[in-house]
Amino acid sequence: MDHVTLALPREPAGGIAGWAADLVDAMGAPGAGLAVAAENLFPPLPSEIILPLTGFAAGQGVVTVFAALFWTTLGSVVGATVLYWIGALFGRARMHALWARLPLVKASDLERTEAWFAKHGTKAVLLGRMVPIFRSLISVPAGVERMPLPTFLVLTALGSLLWNAVLVMSGYWLGEQWDTVGDYVGVLSNGVLALVVAALVCYVVVRLRSRGTARHRRTP
């Protein structure tokens, strides 16, 4: 079996691409699944490198496209399930206790969040699997809220399959230019992160203003 890293144009053998390529080279498609499972548990490992690289390996005949999609999706589900059970073991009681210690928040905020997740949780899990950054984190509240495990697994598998297929097939079609996929996904990730930071800043500002208004009203 040819070593995948020999055909990579710019990624050093010791980088993340080299590590993922070593797994694929040693284990085949299950190695790609293992890399994706690790990426779900440790989001700093970028799927925008691992998945296109797997697609490139499929284009080189190292693995089949079907095996690449099957094992990377299975890896996504396994990693997400671990996070689900972490959330389930943490539980609502501990979540409420931790929430009560945080500044600028109220118990009613968490209750509204729980109500929102109860109503829209299926959409959040399905679509969240296709959003950088949140694709891993969304599994934790699903576990905390004890979403039925079969529902969680089906939604996670579907969302992961769509996300993985886009990146794997991009790497397959782009060939030696597979690493350009990361540039576009990186822009999307930065955009999502910027929106989250902006939302948090707005939330804190609103909270501080509401507290200041409440204190002003209580002052005689």
Automatic annotation (TrEMBL):
Listed InterPro entries: DedA_domain (IPR051311), VTT_dom (IPR032816)
Compartments (UniProt record): Cell membrane
Residue intervals of the VTT domain: 45-172
Record has Endoplasmic reticulum as a keyword: no
Keywords carried by this UniProt record: Cell membrane, Membrane, Transmembrane, Transmembrane helix
Record-linked Pfam families: VTT_dom
Membrane topology: Multi-pass membrane protein
Keyword Cell inner membrane: no
Residues passing through the membrane, by range: 62-86, 152-175, 187-208
Family: Belongs to the DedA family.
Species annotation: Streptomyces tubbatahanensis
Main location: membrane
Name used for this protein in its record: DedA family protein
